[in-house]
Amino acid sequence: SLTGKTAVVTGSNSGIGLGIAECLAARGARVVINSFSDSDEDHALAEKIAKEHGADVAYIQADMSKGDQCRALLTKAEAKFGSVDILVNNAGIQHVSPIEDFPAAKWDAIIAINLSSAFHTTAAALPIMRKGGWGRVVNIASAHGLTASPYKGAYVAAKHGVVGFTKVTALETAREPITCNAICPGYVLTPLVEAQIPDTMKQYGMGREEVIEKVILDRQPSKEFATVEQLGGTVAFLCSDDAAQITGTTISVDGGWTAL
Ligand code: NAD
């Protein structure tokens, strides 16, 4: 159980981050959910998760493309709940384009949100975790942190960077009761992936099921999506005592993608 622990999950008003936040709340953690927006829906979502799981849940706005806001998220979370024990770096965006046409602003945004944010949040979180005497940093990388695909230059570079930074964080905390690992999901059917299905159907002249099996899950041998619940469970495992000696490594949740 994660009772008494406080978790901050970046980019968690949707998709995988939301699934992880719910899973940690269900296991008794206090949870901070986050995105760049600050709408009534965001705060209502925090209330809904709190009610469903009888947990303390707060929404804290912070734009993960801005280093100072990344750091402020941790300060605000500590002020709200008294500690931060678990940091899940999940916020991420995608853009698909050949290198020569890749908009420089998109490159910068992907590096900032998918990679640099983890540097800023981790830098702010470690002193707080040291005060509490325990910590878990879990970075949501990707199968694209270990392998590549064409036209995803910024994303693949950022995710490989996350895997590298995970190892450095683990080495700098190796003598402390703090671990840092990366989870590398294959395809998960989140709004991010769902949004690509209609265009891909048109592009290939295929139906939904065929696009899912032959195009999207082409490299996922299980031919099934990983689920946000499975990713939440993997984060919870990395937060457990059984995982105390697992640090500086990656766990793939990819239906066999990286075995190919
Ligand atoms: P999603 O679009 O559903 O969720 C992304 C989340 O990040 C949202 O909550 C969004 O609000 C937030 N976000 C975006 N920009 C932000 C910013 N500037 N500041 C704060 N929050 C911001 O996507 P998802 O599929 O749930 O992706 C979550 C993570 O999982 C990403 O890092 C993604 O790269 C990774 N991932 C996803 C898949 C997949 O198949 N869906 C596979 C491997 C890795």
Description:
This is 3-hydroxybutyrate dehydrogenase. This protein is α/β, with parallel strands linked by helices. The protein has two domains: 6-188 and 226-259, Rossmann fold (3-Layer(aba) Sandwich); 189-225, no CATH class. The protein contains nine helices and seven strands; from the N terminus they run βαβαβαβαβαβααααβ. It has helices at residues 15-26, 40-53, 67-81, 104-132, 153-172, 191-194, 197-204, 208-216, 228-238; strands at residues 6-9, 30-33, 57-59, 86-89, 135-140, 178-185, 250-253. It has a seven-stranded parallel β-sheet with strand order 3-2-1-4-5-6-7, with helices on both faces. Helix 1 links the parallel strand 1 and strand 2 (30-33). The mean pLDDT is 97. It binds nicotinamide-adenine-dinucleotide. Nicotinamide-adenine-dinucleotide binds next to helix 1, helix 4 and helix 6. Nicotinamide-adenine-dinucleotide (NAD) binds at residues 11-17, 35-36, 63-65, 90-93, 113-114, 140, 142, 185, 187-188, 190-193.
Share in β-strands: 5-15%
**Amino- and carboxy-terminal Cα gap:** 35 Å
Mean pLDDT equals 97
Shape: globular
Helix/strand order, N-terminal first: EHEHEHEHEHEHHHHE
How many helix segments?
9
Radius of gyration, taken over Cα atoms and rounded to an integer in Å? 18 Å
What structural keywords apply?
260 residues; Rossmann fold; alpha/beta; 7-stranded parallel sheet; single chain; binds nicotinamide-adenine-dinucleotide
Short structural description:
This protein has 260 residues and is an alpha/beta fold.
Helices and strands in order:
Elements: E1 6-9, H1 15-26, E2 30-33, H2 40-53, E3 57-59, H3 67-81, E4 86-89, H4 104-132, E5 135-140, H5 153-172, E6 178-185, H6 191-194, H7 197-204, H8 208-216, H9 228-238, E7 250-253
Parallel strand pairs: 1-2, 1-4, 2-3, 4-5, 5-6, 6-7
Helix pairs in contact: 1-9, 3-4, 4-5, 7-8
The protein binds nicotinamide-adenine-dinucleotide.
Nicotinamide-adenine-dinucleotide (NAD) binds at residues 11-17, 35-36, 63-65, 90-93, 113-114, 140, 142, 185, 187-188, 190-193.
